[in-house]
Amino acid sequence: MVTATRAVPDVARLRAVAGSVPDPEIPVVTLDDLGIVRGVTVSDDGAVEVVLTPTYTGCPATEVIAADVERALAGAGAGRVVVRTVLAPAWTTDWITESGRAKLRAFGIAPPDGTRAVGGPVTAVPLALTARCPRCGSLRTREISRFGSTPCKALWSCRDCGEPFDSFKVLR
């Protein structure tokens, strides 16, 4: 009797494929850079389940991200793909990788860095935060609008170089 054997899927490879999908709103960073891929598993029937945590509840890109992940995994040979969105624990800007922060900065978006206008780490005391200018590095910046090009960013301006820039909102 000949027994058919099923190929064991390489979960690490599938995880890498899902993580390499670019963010649709900020295509210079991947889902791994943002830290929103929470896990990838393969069920006994071969279905690939991807768990994502959006950058915030109600993010308009969530459905696009899920479709992009499904498409990328199908292109990598996955059969049935199930993308599940989980909101707990809530995403935090602490999940953005150092590589992701560098990519954001190079793209002209100030990554969250916990910097206060007077320097030093963010504390539990509510203080007016500033964003470091991604172009010249100055902390002499001001928020122009709490809402930038996407809901997870705010619009800022640098008082030294005069350039406007988006700043990723700090979420903890």
From TrEMBL:
Q: Residue limits of the MIP18 family-like domain?
A: 19-82
Concerning Pfam families, the annotation shows: FeS_assembly_P (PF01883), Zn_ribbon_PaaD (PF23451)
Domain of life from the UniProt record: Bacteria
| Location of the PaaD zinc beta ribbon domain | 128-169
Q: Which InterPro entries match?
A: Fe-S_Maturation_MIP18 (IPR052339), FSCA_dom_sf (IPR034904), MIP18-like (IPR002744), PaaD-like (IPR011883), Zn_ribbon_PaaD (IPR056572)
Q: Which PANTHER family match?
A: 1,2-PHENYLACETYL-COA EPOXIDASE, SUBUNIT D-RELATED, FE-S PROTEIN MATURATION AUXILIARY FACTOR YITW
Q: What is this protein called?
A: Phenylacetic acid degradation protein PaaD
